[in-house]
Amino acid sequence: MKKLLALLLTLCMAGGAMPVFAAEETPQPVPSWAYGVLADGYAMGLFGDELYTQHSQTITKEQLSNLTQVVGDKLALLEMDQREADDTALVIDTTRGGVINALYQEAAAYAFPGVEEGPEAFMTSVGALAGDGTGLNLDRPCTLMEAATMANSLVLNLYDQQNAGSLGLLWKAEGNGNTLYLLGSIHTDRNNVYPFHKQLRDIILNAEQVSFELDFNDEAGLAEFAAMQVYSDGTTLADHISPELYQVVVNTASMMGMDEATVSQYKAWALASSFQSLALLDDTTGSNAMAIDLYVNAKAANAGIDIGAVETYAFQGGIFDTLSPEYQEAYLAGGLLMLLDVNTMDESTKSALTAILGEDALTQDGQEALQEEAEQIGLWMDQWKARDVEGFAKAYPKDETINGGDELESKLFTDRDPGMINYAARYLEQEGSHTGLLVVGAGHMIGSGGIVQGLKNLGYTVEVVPNP
Prior knowledge:
By secondary structure, this protein is of the alpha/beta class. Helices cover about 50% and strands about 5% of the residues. The chain folds into 2 domains: about 1-20 and about 165-465, no CATH class; about 20-160, no CATH class. Helix 1 packs parallel to helix 17 (about 365-385), helix 1 runs parallel beside helix 20 and helix 5 (about 95-110) packs across helix 6. The longest helix is centred in the C-terminal third of the chain and has 23 residues, at about 365-385.
């Protein structure tokens, strides 16, 4: 059970591997003027993949209803004083004016400055309504892209007005005339993490280069990593784990629409990472489940900012691929235990997991311990949103975890932190005056061997960025 909890701690803090079940279709072209809205709007759930094929079509009533629901949910999180409802009936339809009225109603429920001026004046004042030189064209049908842009502008501007939004675990390193911001990420989407605060959004957009653990735009690297996740030696998953655990995997994957012929191709570590990633999603996860790293990458890439990477897919894949067979089996069993409900498990599933994880794993005490660790992720996310660096460092026992002798911990931290420190140092050593952003797992930032302390040891100035 102790090993399982260590795996849970590791997953959100350091894992950069993309899950088996995360494949996406190639997006269709959208207007270049809309690039600025894509990352924020998608992350907040204002629209989904349909935008890429329906962006020029008139918004449907169902899409408008979904859009206003998300806007309402986001504005409610600001906890503004509520405002007495206006008795004036507003026409809500799929014209530009109707969409403006629908979005305005969500804001008008709260005492935002200027909201009493009415739909057109208020929505114009917050940058959610603009004309094209010929007027506001309120009677014209509203496209899905126009509606998404209006909603995105409304939410971001009202959050900015209230000095709200997620701040992130953010440091600023300086040396030789260069500046490198360090954003410690948590590789998931939880606790209503979007939208980001304007300060953090501006840091992303003003960077000359944004670097990540991996280059998410590297198609060749992604293909190489995908190939590493499947067996290529003629064996299948059934040859590497117990028959009982194999059957649990097949049954679980079947519930997700994945047949045995497909799931049997994947290695134990790849399935384990996917099952754990799915288990960590909850009702605070955005509808599009966009991890922090992927959001930052999309925002930077859409803005034409240069993207860099500390590591390669082959290197990260090798971290998991070289785990011992015994460890991979325990990793997979742990992922299944996190995903499945002990109370509804059949006896064969319980027996298979107990045989690998031990008798304590499925006991009430074991389940309570696992639940407590899962709740830690919510705490970390809240600390991330508030930029509570000190609280996070206390809540995440990195040094203690590394010294616990766990096989995966050594590979994820001890073997990688030095390379990340060197990458950051090289940026600060370059000639000229440059400003960049490095986004890696928050676990790599803290601790005695982390990036922050490593750069300080090299003589660089590193400080937490003050809250705005």
